[in-house]
Design brief:
Layout: H1 12-17, H2 22-62, H3 70-84, H4 86-100
Helix pairs in contact: 2-4, 3-4
Bound molecules: the ligand C=C(O[C@@H]1C=C(C(=O)O)C=C[C@H]1O)C(=O)O.
Length: about 100
């Protein structure tokens, strides 16, 4: 670590995290590892959701029905909105687009 005056560190770690102390940089670095691991799990769950959704859509289309079921999508949107508020609706819309494409 080099330093500029008392208590101001200029390590690579603090630079990368935006922290102003080594203690904060260490906390942020550890928490970012947890976030990266959570993001990997979230991405895996989204991919699993896409696969399950595809099974449903293919079964419905093969049976002569339509790909999209708006009443079900409304229920999914409501579920996310109830849990996460307005941004939850936007998240659900993105998930639905990933799962059944743009309508
Ligand atoms: C998966 C389905 O098909 C489509 C995809 C949906 C989804 O990914 O949640 C919801 C409704 C349908 O538009 C379903 O009807 O459940």
């Amino acid at each position: 670590m080099s330093s500029i005056g008392i208590g101001i560190s200029t390590t690579d770690t603090t630079t990368a995290t935006g922290a102003r102390t080594d203690e904060a940089a260490a906390l942020i670095g550890g928490a970012r590892e947890r976030i990266d691991a959570l993001d990997d799990r979230i991405i895996g769950l989204v991919q699993e959701r896409m696969a399950v959704s595809a099974v449903i859509q293919e079964a419905r289309i093969t049976s002569g029905g339509r790909r999209v079921n708006l009443s079900r999508e409304t229920a999914v949107l409501g579920h996310y909105r109830d849990a996460l508020g307005k941004p939850g609706t936007a998240l659900a819309m993105t998930l639905l687009e990933l799962c059944r494409g743009r309508v």
